[in-house]
Amino acid sequence: MGKRYYCEVCDKHFADNVTNRRNHLKGLAHQRNRKAHYDACRDAATILAEEAKKNPCRKFASGQCIFGASCRFSHMTYAYRIALEKQAEADWFAKRRKMEEAAKNESPKFESWLEKFESKSSGSDEKESDSDSLHIPEFSLPEFLHGIPDLPPSLIPPTKEDILTAPFSEWG
Asked: Is the pTM for the entire model greater than 0.70?
C-alpha cells in the first residue's frame, strides 16, 4: 500500500509522496491549524504586543466578522485585554522572582575565583622557580597500555621536563 504520512497538526493521514506533502503543507486547512497551534503557545505579553499593532475589527464589534482567527484586524475585547495585562504582569513578576531566587542561591563564581587568585599571588612572597609556580600535572600511562611495546608518541604521556623544555608559541 505504500508509506503513509501523518500530520500531527491536522490529525490527518495521507499517502507520503512529495506532491501530496507539498500540497498539504501549502493547504489553507493546514496553515490555519498550524497558526492555531502556535497561537495557543504564545505568552500574554506577546499577544498584547501583536494585538496592539492591529486596528480593531468593526465587524467583530457588531458580531458579523466571518474571518474569525484569520482576520487581519484585532478581535480583542476590553475585558480580554485587561485579563491579558494582568497575566503578563503576573508572568513578569514570577520570572523576576525566579531570577532573584536563582541569584541568591548561586554563589558568585567570578568573585570566589578572584579571591583565590589574589590569595595565591599575595601568599607567595618568596621567589619560587618557574617549574614550582606552574603547577604542572603529573601524567601517567593507563594500566591497559603498560604491556604494549613501541607505543606511538601520541599515547606516551609527557614528563615534566618535556613540558618545561617545549617551545612556547602564542596563539591568536
From this structure: no
